[in-house]
From TrEMBL, chains A, B:
Pfam families: LacI (PF00356), Peripla_BP_3 (PF13377). This is HTH-type transcriptional regulator DegA. Keywords: DNA-binding, Repressor, Transcription, Transcription regulation. SUPFAM superfamilies: lambda repressor-like DNA-binding domains, Periplasmic binding protein-like I. One of its GO terms (molecular function) is transcription cis-regulatory region binding. Residues 9-63 form the HTH lacI-type domain. PROSITE patterns: HTH_LACI_2. It comes from Roseisalinus antarcticus. The keyword DNA-binding applies.
């Protein structure tokens, strides 16, 4: 049914029209190549006439690079994922690569989506969401397509990747709350299968238990990694009158923390941090808006993307099990206004 | 330097190992094809052993479709663009297409970025930002790559596209403010070169002038399409004591309106809408958060993406000047709490 697309002009066509060799056409389109001004102009004129543009993919057949990288992101309603996707698009574009974007909304689909990705001639796959099955790892290894994990890791460390120090993030939030006098803690957790939520919860708990907080002083509810679910579940918890209320809430991601903040202030009429303190993690832009000014740990997204790029540039290392790197970068504590700040030490 | 990627197994390799014809391999991977269960299983087993996956691009050589669509987005710090990108990624993926993302931060780079896009074997280019030069239109026409404009349009209507009724959006905001009793209006404009800001400003002005508001009652300042610039420039305007203050502010995009709202409440200590009313346009998620609850006009992003898809599916029409469609969809008025609502008519 569909008509065939008009054939692209080839470098051969351009060479013939310009009266030069095919190699000269190639040089005319390569920055810094040695070619006379006159010849370059003839090539460009012919190329223009024939609507010729050098096809990066065609030229990649010899270098085995397409300059396309598949980036698999999670639910884009979470600003952390949309901000990560932005950072990939802009960061990769600067290095001459383009992002072929794949979205996984349901964890169960992850495997299927990553398999879709290998259908395309991508140089590499960056996985920011989705569990990785061993079957998939076999396919990509067989095809020689390297995989880098972003913001998550396997316990085995068999896959290269970069993530934030999430245990450290949880511990740092616990420290800020504990030193501000909190005694009854509530964790609003995200996806229990994901390493990010798990590590943050663990870091938070471990810090508090080590400071003598009894296990009964640390409650946990589910925020399902979303604004709405967190808002609903925190409101329900506070309206349940049978238990003492927590005085400090750690929502393990900012988008959940914003849901909690709106539940506390708007739905329950409570003051934050006056009545209850609250913090998140990720450092998304929404949390930085004046109306929220959320206390949080910022993930160094730009640095994480730059690190991912470096890993892709030494792609051969990614195929060598002895060279696989799993980097953990520190997050940055952002003292917002939702956890009381310690009185400043006088110099 | 870089080693060559291991060669992908071909359907020929799979056919040989499975002891079937190449056509059988193709049928085994096509949903609904007629092939015996036994044969299909042999093919899948062989494919698995050889790490073979059907290469969509290779198969697209015959159908002239790659199932990749270049989407060129503007500054991703504006949530409208990141939400649009999300809608494209998820909407296109559902239809079996993947988004190859390009970002244009500086309007001047637009032309160059779109030219990058044609280097890839994309089926089409969706332009949500970036001016389109006639040179570029020639190249894409010559290559038979259709272009669809999203959220902007040329006065000539020579390029297919879909956008929101932005004049209508500006007029609807003007109506809400005028009927709430506003008398002195301030417009915070975005990119004066973009059709979106221009049309919204025009719709707003035209409505008010027709209602007898004098031209001197409509002031205009520049918000440079960003949160920070709008916040700064509104604060400066309100601190300049030499002119009467406006009582109604229309920031032509939500991200600018949020900057204005934080300037008014946080920096200037004013009540919104008590001291001054404010509205935006776009309907971004941040504006819907309880702490802002911005009065706005929501662009029907999902519907606009679906319309773009329909246009791409009748790609032949896009090449026929007589069939070019430029669709304008109505926005939805979202009565937030930043413009006083009219008293409800009693039934």
């Amino acid at each position: 049914m569909a008509k065939k697309r008009p054939t692209r002009a080839t470098s051969h066509d351009v060479a013939r029209l310009a009266g030069v060799s095919q190699a000269a056409v190639s040089r005319a389109f390569s920055a810094g190549s040695s070619i006379s001004k006159d010849k370059r102009e003839r090539v460009l004129k012919a190329a223009h006439e024939l609507h010729y543009v050098p096809n990066k993919l065609a030229s990649s057949l010899s270098t085995a690079r397409s300059n396309m990288v598949a980036v698999i992101v999670g639910n884009l309603n979470n600003p952390f994922y949309s901000e990560s996707l932005q950072a990939f698009v802009t960061g990769f574009q600067e290095s001459g690569r383009q992002v072929l974007a794949f979205s996984v909304t349901d964890a169960a689909d992850g495997d299927e989506v990553v398999q879709q990705a290998v259908y395309y001639p991508v140089d590499a796959i960056v996985v920011t969401a989705a569990p990785l099955s061993s079957k998939l790892l076999k396919i990509s290894a067989g095809l020689g397509i390297p995989i880098v994990m972003f913001n998550r890791h396997l316990d085995s460390n068999r896959i290269a990747g970069v993530h934030c120090d999430n245990r450290g993030a949880g511990a740092r939030i616990a420290e800020a709350m504990h030193s501000a006098g909190a005694e009854r803690f509530l964790i609003v957790r995200g996806d229990p299968e994901g390493s990010t939520s798990r590590d943050r919860v663990e870091g938070f708990r471990t810090y508090l238990l080590a400071r003598g907080v009894p296990p009964t002083g640390i409650e946990e509810i589910d925020g399902a990694s979303s604004y709405g679910a967190s808002r609903d579940s925190l409101r329900a918890r506070f309206r349940a009158g049978d238990r003492p209320r927590p005085d400090a809430i750690y929502a393990v991601s900012d988008i959940m923390a914003l849901g909690c903040l709106d539940a506390l202030r708007t739905d329950l009429g409570l003051r934050v941090p006056g009545d209850v303190m609250l913090a998140g993690s990720d450092g998304i832009r929404q949390g930085r808006l004046s109306a929220y000014d959320l206390t949080t740990i910022r993930q160094p997204i730009e640095q994480m993307v730059a690190t991912t790029l470096q890993m892709l540039e030494s792609a051969e290392d990614l195929k060598n099990p002895d060279m696989i790197q799993v980097l953990e970068l520190p997050g940055e504590f952002i003292p917002g206004s939702t956890v009381p700040r310690p009185p400043r030490d006088k110099p």
